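Quick one - inputs below.
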Amino acid sequence: QVQLQESGPGLVKPSQTLSLTCTVSGGSISSGSYYWSWIRQPAGKGLEWIGRIYTSGSTNYNPSLKSRVTISVDTSKNQFSLKLSSVTAADTAVYYCASSPSSVGPNWFDPWGQGTLVTVSS
Amino acid sequence: AIRMTQSPSSFSASTGDRVTITCRASQGISSYLAWYQQKPGKAPKLLIYAASTLQSGVPSRFSGSGSGTDFTLTISCLQSEDFATYYCQQYYSYPGTFGQGTKVEIK
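Output:
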């Protein structure tokens, strides 16, 4: 069973870039069976899909965040990463990485990482 | 983006109750709907996909139904471990969107 684990700074200053990494274990990120996504959840609020990447490097992003988001993959490390630029307090949230079955369009998410809280504050 | 609306936002129930949560899409999504359970401080857990297909390992007291714009998640006999927040998610079109959540609390 694939497992995912997020890592990265828990505190980011406003206007800077948020950077997180998701490490995949129990399977190869290059298997071609999955897409790899980032999802976030502000405290006490709902879930927002940020974007996804395939092993080939092909990406899809949420239009609401597209101008600030970059998702990349490092197959040699079995990791994928999120960069979110020009952050504000509104970007404070728990960030999850998750996998979904490979498909042309969006799909459901399973499994998920445990999540990591990122706070934007000076 | 397709808007997903869940009802109710929260409610109280007792163990052994049969409970139903509703999710409505702002446009037709066929059966491209998933349900998740989230407990405090934990990541969401997939319960159901394709509107009615139970994920492996999920107890059979959970069931899903619906297609088009209206969907339901039913828990046939509520257990103590089922008190949580439930989310629906459409994956018919980009971006995949979630409902606002339904919190099931102990009465």
